[in-house]
Design goal:
Number of helices of chain B: 13
Oligomer: heterodimer
Low-confidence stretches of chain B: 1-59
Order of helices and strands of chain B: HHEHEHEHHEEHHEHEEHEEHHEH
Structural class of chain B: alpha/beta
Largest interface: A-B, 31 and 41 residues
Radius of gyration of chain B: 20 Å
Mean pLDDT of chain B: 82
Structural class of chain A: mainly alpha
Order of helices and strands of chain A: HHHHHHHHHHHHHHHHHHHHHHHHH
Distance between the termini of chain B: 32 Å
Number of strands of chain B: 11
Largest sheet of chain A: none
Helix content of chain B: 40-55%
Distance between the termini of chain A: 29 Å
Radius of gyration of chain A: 25 Å
Mean pLDDT of chain A: 85
Chain lengths: 539, 386
């Protein structure tokens, strides 16, 4: 992530108007404080795990239940990741490299499942495919009395795959688009079959991109709490959430173990990706190299249709069905607009704080490229890799042991969101600072502005779109966040997510229809922000 | 069902009980809307002051309840944090009714399972924001008291209920009673298919793969604790393992179990008595009925109750809130809306509910049910995620 040397040098000389090569002390201090704040809560996780000594947590590691949870989690992550790759790579190939009918439509449609929060997908699937769900009642006249259950590993894999494969799809698609097809042609002239050419030429070229997408899928799967909870499949997040109040030490030990698995996944991914980032010859992709599907056209069309049908039609259809049936299923707890307002309030606050906190980190890293600055920038990414349930738990312990006056208050909840989603703000802000030509603030300095004045008058306005984009991402991901919200919300403070979750837990699915549709609509917005921000062309 | 002398009387009691509960269901719909009207101030002719009167009166077939009305209780003011192990769909209406009675009174409820909440308070210790802990069972209240985290209730609050339904040192007080039952789907089973002995269930072939339970649910854990106390650890563990071998399906709460039975997804299960009545109340003649076991852990009569959390700095407000849960209106609410047994002697149970004696509960001191630790350990040993 090192900035180009040229930028850095100019940047430093900019800041060094009075005193050449002065170290940005204040900025480093600020940036360090933000970085420390984002990892410090994890300390209390460790403190709680080991508060009764070392023997017990170590023996907990080898407890049969712990091992079972570890095995379950690994099986789940592996299955979802493999399934996602198996779905995404062919989908990407079909939409980029073939003459699939309605290619543009399918390109967007197969990305859209990202819009559905996985827990909403999960409870829609449960209500439709549970042994006596909607599908069974449709089939009842045909004598179908019960369907095989959807609960457990299979259901969890199905739902998580449907809502995370787009990560792999998006990265695979990007790399297939820039694939150097002349190599394929070369392989073909060397009398390789199509399949051999794919294996020997295409696979190595797209592997880093597939690995990057698979990493996102794996991390999401490992950190997801709602889906396994609904599908009743015991993985780390589920056990941590259900056990923290009963045995906090055990939950803390499991959390540390979950963090270790997260780190392992990151390490594996960097191995697969390797150091060499293979670039195609950029823009030279020959559209003429598009494969003709011929009579396979229609069977090939069934594939994206099936995926999109399952991932989008099931949940949205279910929610609309509930709505048409009159929504409320009698929980006696009416949905109020106040819950939306609460969601918006905390999300706005999180976005604002994340943007402000991200500023010094992003600026220091973009403009000064000091070793500490880079380190701090990296550290803020730790929060992103920490699953929400773990961050929630860590902050519960902080609240109870360190800052009881903040425990179960909005500031601590917002802090949790900021720490979790800070990288979205830092990344976006940093990229926009890199785009500002350092000569501009320099010019302002020569016109007599102080360095802070030049920053405010020139750099900040130019970087504003990036800041805004980062803030929007933080806002929208905060709206959807589940486990930390459940663990840290003030008593009596309901948001969209906590209301949906409560109704889901109590089995009043119909009451969750309206808020779930609102949330899906808001999430849809987030995808379009991401797509437009990345200048994602859909051709 | 065994054909001994008692069974005729029991089944006739049972029929009366169910018929009465059905009728009460109808009444409670009227009652609910009256309460809602009172709370919302619907129909310009009712102002807030009429609320308490409306809760108790205007119900078909029921006179105004005896006991102390809320209007004769001390006013509540300030902000009260309520950790409620009782679900919002069940008690939210009552909680907001009490909140709305007073202009400068706010309740901040935190709804979760009783087990989780009592452990949360234990973990929070002196810094717990909770003022009142409202639990579905005596066991969690006992844990709170055993941990030294329950304040002593004023005598005049605690003695509103019979000594059998409160802590000996007034650290908690029961607010309503509930019986353990065996709900079953009437399309799949008849009453005769349901054993009257809880120990017979693991070997009852008719229940293979069709039963449901909620092992993480406080009331269920109280039931297992009772079995442990009555039959010993080994037998209880064997019972749990037997049920798991039967393919019993786990749900997060007992209302879901009851609803799944009425849906036909399950054939039978283990729940408190009033969940069945709530399903009956919400649906048009669902195929679900209630069976009871006799004199064993499957038939315990537990209480839901409340305690003031010792870390509170507003113990008077907290105690007065608990007092409101024992008011005429609140007890009437429990009887007719949640279908529980009222615990103040002045309020009658709904219709012709069998008395506690007629339910054949085992001989057991409810405070013993606080010993949850070994129960959870046993359940985990048996292979349950709790």
């Amino acid at each position: 992530m090192a900035a180009e040397p040229g930028t850095t040098a100019t940047g430093e000389s900019t800041d060094a108007g009075d005193e050449p090569r002065s170290y940005p002390v204040g900025l480093t201090f600020l940036s360090g404080a933000v970085a420390a704040g984002s990892v410090l809560p994890l300390f209390w996780l460790i403190e709680t795990a080991f508060r009764t000594g070392v023997a017990e947590p170590v023996s907990l590691l080898f407890d049969p239940l712990t091992l079972q949870v570890l095995v379950n989690s690994v099986v789940l992550v592996t299955s979802v990741t493999v399934a996602s790759v198996l779905i995404s790579v062919p989908l990407a190939y079909l939409t980029v490299r073939t003459d699939l009918p309605f290619r543009r439509f399918w390109t967007v449609a197969v990305m859209l499942p990202l819009v559905i929060p996985s827990y909403i997908g999960a409870f829609a699937f449960v209500s439709v495919f549970s042994p006596n769900g909607e599908v069974q009642s449709l089939l009842a006249p045909l004598g179908v009395e019960e369907l095989p259950g959807i609960y457990g590993l299979e259901g969890t894999v199905l739902v998580l795959t449907l809502y995370t494969y787009p990560y792999v799809y998006i990265t695979s698609r990007a790399s297939l688009k820039t694939l150097d097809t002349s190599l394929v042609d070369a392989a073909r002239t060397l009398k390789h079959t199509r399949w051999e050419a794919f294996k020997r030429v295409v696979v190595p070229q797209i592997r880093p991109a597939v690995a990057a997408g698979a990493l996102l899928t794996a991390l999401y799967t490992l950190s997801d709490f709602g889906t396994p909870q609904i599908m009743r499949y015991s993985v780390f997040t589920r056990i941590i959430y259900t056990r923290w109040a009963t045995s906090p030490e055990f939950a803390a030990v499991l959390s540390i173990q979950l963090l270790a698995v997260t780190v392992l996944i990151l390490a594996v991914e960097s191995q697969i990706r390797g150091d060499d980032t293979l670039h195609g010859s950029g823009g030279s992709a020959h559209s003429s190299g598009r494969m003709r599907l011929g009579r396979w056209k229609w069977p090939a069309l069934a594939f994206p249709a099936l995926v999109v049908g399952l991932a989008l039609a099931v949940p949205i259809g279910t929610l609309l069905l509930w709505l048409v049936r009159g929504g409320a299923t009698g929980s006696g707890v009416p949905f109020e607009l106040e819950y939306v307002a609460n969601s918006v309030d905390v999300s706005l606050a999180a976005a604002l704080v994340a943007t402000l906190a991200g500023l010094p980190v992003a600026y220091l890293s973009a403009r000064h490229s000091t070793r500490l600055g880079d380190l701090f920038e990296r550290i803020t990414y730790v929060g992103y890799a920490v699953p929400g349930v773990v961050m929630g738990l860590a902050l519960v312990f902080v609240g109870i042991n360190v800052a009881p006056s903040l425990y179960l208050t909005l500031p601590l909840l917002i802090f949790a969101y900021v720490v979790r989603f800070l990288p979205q703000s830092v990344g976006s802000t940093r990229a926009s600072f890199l785009q500002v030509n350092p000569a501009l603030p320099e010019a302002a300095r020569t016109l007599g502005r102080s360095s802070i004045g030049a920053f405010r008058a020139v750099t900040l306005p130019l970087a504003a779109p990036g800041l805004l984009g980062g803030a929007a991402l933080v806002f929208l991901t905060t709206m959807k966040e589940l486990p930390a919200t459940l663990m840290l919300s003030p008593s009596g403070y309901k948001t969209l997510v906590t209301y949906i979750w409560q109704m889901q837990e109590d089995g009043y699915y119909g009451d969750a229809a309206v808020p779930a549709l609102v949330l899906v609509a808001i999430s849809a917005l987030s995808i379009f922000v991401i797509i437009s921000q990345e200048g994602y062309d859909v051709k | 069902m065994s054909e001994d002398d008692g069974s005729d009387r029991r089944s006739s009691n049972r029929r009366r009980f169910l018929a009465a509960a059905g009728a009460a269901g109808m009444a409670s719909v009227a009652g609910c809307s009256a309460l809602l009207d009172a709370v919302n101030g619907d129909g310009g002719d009712s102002d807030g002051d009429e609320g308490p009167g409306l809760i108790g009166s205007g119900r078909e077939g029921r006179d105004a309840p005896g006991g102390t009305p809320m209007s004769e209780m001390p006013d509540l003011s300030g902000t009260l944090t309520l950790y409620s192990g009782r679900g919002e769909p069940l008690v939210g209406e009552l909680v907001s009714h009490i909140e709305d009675l007073y202009d400068d009174f706010t309740i901040e409820p935190r709804y979760n399972s009783s087990t989780d909440l009592v452990n949360q308070i234990t973990e929070e210790g002196d810094t717990s924001p909770a003022d009142v802990f409202f639990s579905v069972n005596a066991g969690s209240l006992g844990v709170l008291a055993d941990e030294g985290l329950a304040a002593t209730l004023p005598d005049d609050v605690a003695t509103m209920v019979d000594g059998a339904y409160r802590d000996d040192e007034n650290q908690w007080v029961g607010t309503s009673g509930r019986a353990r039952t065996v709900p079953y789907n009437t399309n799949q089973f008849s009453e005769d298919d349901v054993p009257s002995d809880i120990s017979a269930f693991p070997d009852a072939d008719q229940f293979q793969d069709v039963m449901g339970w909620a092992p993480s649910y406080g009331s269920f854990q109280a039931f297992v604790t009772a079995m442990r106390i009555l039959n010993g650890d080994e037998e209880t563990k064997a019972w749990l393992e037997g049920m798991i071998d039967q393919g019993v399906e786990a749900y997060s709460d007992e209302f879901t179990v009851a609803r799944r039975i009425a849906d036909g997804e399950l054939g039978a299960g283990f729940t408190n008595h009033y969940y069945i009545q709530r399903v009956v109340d919400n649906r048009d003649d669902p195929p679900i009925a209630t069976a009871f076991t006799e004199g064993d852990a499957g038939a315990i009569f537990n209480v839901a109750g409340a305690a003031v959390v010792s870390s509170t700095d507003q113990s008077e407000l907290a105690a007065n809130f608990v007092r409101h849960l024992l008011s005429a209106e609140a007890q009437e609410y429990f009887a007719t809306t949640t279908f529980e047994y009222p615990l103040i002697p002045e309020v009658e149970p709904v219709g012709e509910l069998p008395t506690v004696d007629e339910l054949n509960p085992p001989d057991l001191d409810l405070t013993q049910l606080s010993d949850l630790g070994p129960t959870l350990e046993l359940m985990r040993d048996a292979g349950l995620d709790v």
